Amino acid sequence: MTQMTLRQHLMAQATDTDLMILIEDIATACRMISDEVRHGAFAGNLGGAGTQNVQGEAQKALDVISDQIFQAQVGGNPRLAALVSEEVDEVNWRKEAPQAGDFVVYYDPLDGSSNLDVNLSVGTIFSIVRLGQAIETTDSAVQIKGTEQIAAGYAIYGPSTGLVITTGQGVDGFTHHPGNGAFLLTQPAMSIPAETQEFAINASRYDLWDAPVRRYVDDCLRGADGPRGKKFNMRWCASMVADVHRILTRGGVFLYPKDSGNAGQGGKLRLMYEANPMGMLVEAAGGASSTGTGRILDVAPTGHHQRVSVILGSKDEVAVIEEYHLK
Ligand code: P6P
Predict the structure, then answer these.
(1) Is the distance from the beta carbon of residue 114 to the nearest atom of ligand 1 less than 6 Å?
(2) Phi, psi of 43 (to 5 degrees)
(3) Atom of ligand 1 at shortest distance to CA of 274?
(4) Which of 51, 169, 264, 306 has the largest count of CB atoms under 10 Å?
(5) pLDDT of amino acid 230
């Protein structure tokens, strides 16, 4: 059976034309970033750029290159009001007078880039909001709640290059065909099982976790004879895109909670271009996304680089973790 292209799929979903064009611009940027990643070793791009981003993190050369590609391929879209990038401190305004119907795109151009030099999967994460009214070009104007997203997705640069998107009608996975360059529909209607026996967390931070997280993991590790009554498996890719892709494919739960080591910054992962888009995807696939005490998408932003606790995946397991936070 012929697999649908990204464009055919978006048309079949009667996606708004402006949104469809914007998603295709983003897909083009992801193809180009994928190419740069796969040629990184030849161009000497796998190392550091010698600079820091607004997060105070050392930038990889490919972080900077990926951000430049995204700006070049998406920034020219005539309906785009602003780009908000993990790699750029200020909001990148593309219009002096943004109108109702214009888009704001929040993105992490190369998530997990610390994995580049060890050849593990990395990715690009994006979130799309459509303005309901004209706005001023102020930082607070792009501090829009995750529930307002109209589309979200990521590209994953792994053994194959994948693109996973939602426009609110379920979640669909595409694979880049090296021959004709198209993204072909290979994982339609991705769905997260409600239950799981697999959790993903950076266990080296055990001593920093708050009590509810520590109790949850302790109980999972006590296996079938413990309070959970079943054995758990653990995965941790140190690449959110890779961990979330696994969860969207076979279930599981991902945790990066605020802890005593990152509490001063509000946590590790960023709300606008990591937690919100992944939260929308996971919920659209039947999962849940929580800060531990509330829905991620309900968090009212106070800054476009703010951080948040992230717990997402199989909805019954997320509910169990929220229970631990209530005790
Ligand atoms: P740690 C990558 O830097 C990232 O933002 C996410 O992709 C990933 O889940 C997390 O940080 C990894 O953090 O503390 O394990 O290096």
Answers:
(1) yes
(2) -95, 0
(3) 5
(4) 306
(5) 97
Q: Whose CA is nearest to atom 1 of ligand 1?
A: 238
**Is a pLDDT exceeding 80 seen at residue 1?**
no
Q: Which atom of ligand 1 is nearest to the CA of 238?
A: 12
Q: Is the CB of 111 under 6 A from ligand 1?
A: yes
Ranges of H-type helices in the chain? 6-12, 17-38, 40-43, 61-74, 211-221, 240-250, 276-284, 315-326
pTM of the model as a whole: 0.97
d(CA 268, ligand 1 centre) in Å: 8
Strand order in the sheet with 310-313: 233-235, 198-200, 253-256, 310-313, 288-290
CB burial of residue 13 (10 Å; 0-12, 13-18, 19+) = middle
320 phi and psi angles, rounded to 5 deg: -60, -45
Instruction: Give me the mean pLDDT over the 214-225 stretch.
Output: 98
Token pair 């469809």: residue? 20
Alpha-carbon torsion, ordered 196, 202, 203, 209, to 10 deg: -100
Let me know if 2 is exposed, middle or buried by CB neighbors in 10 A (0-12, 13-18, 19+).
exposed
33 CA from centroid of ligand 1 (Å):
19
